[in-house]
Amino acid sequence: MTQPNENEFYDRVVRRLSRMIPALGLIGAISVAVLRGIPSGFAFLIGAAVSFASFWGWRHLVDAFGPNPKKRNPAFFVFRMVALAAGAWVIIKFLGLNVAAAALGLLVSAAAFVLEIIFELIYARA
């Protein structure tokens, strides 16, 4: 039996995470909206969007260390993350959204990673 290529494994994991994070964000936003109201669900969705943007940025940072790195300025990565966080903070403050729901939305990527680990533990081919 042949061992899968490490790049193929990485690509499959990233593809699954890129699907899981938005799915968990939408499911969580709908659940929070039903339980706590639409503004809280929207705040959760904002947190989940920032979480996905953070995952996207970290993925590109990791890809920069790969065999064919794209030349990117690291300051742009930091600026983008600060701009996303500042934008989310302004939206939450001016719309008066629930900060706890937004902070909970930030954990969507962590939940997706935990689900991915469980998936790999159950379906891993040794």
Short description:
81% of the residues lie in helices and 0% in strands. The chain is mainly alpha-helical and 126 residues long. The N and C termini lie close together (10 Å).
Molecular structure report:
The radius of gyration is 17 Å and the shape is flat. Helix 1 runs antiparallel to helix 2 (about 40-65) and helix 1 (about 5-35) crosses helix 5. The longest helix has about 30 residues, at about 5-35. The termini are close together. The chain has one domain (about 5-125). The mean pLDDT is about 85. It has helices spanning about 5-35, 40-65, 75-95, 100-105, 110-125. It is about 80% helix and about 0% strand. With about 130 residues, it is mainly alpha-helical. The protein is built from 5 helices and no strands.
Features:
single chain; 126 residues; 5 helices; 0% strand
Topology:
Layout: H1 6-36, H2 38-63, H3 74-95, H4 99-105, H5 108-123
Range of strand content: under 5%
Q: Count the beta strands.
A: 0
| SSE run | HHHHH
Query: Treating each run of at least 4 consecutive H or I residues as one helix, how many helices?
Result: 5
Flag low-confidence runs.
none
Specify the structural class: mainly alpha
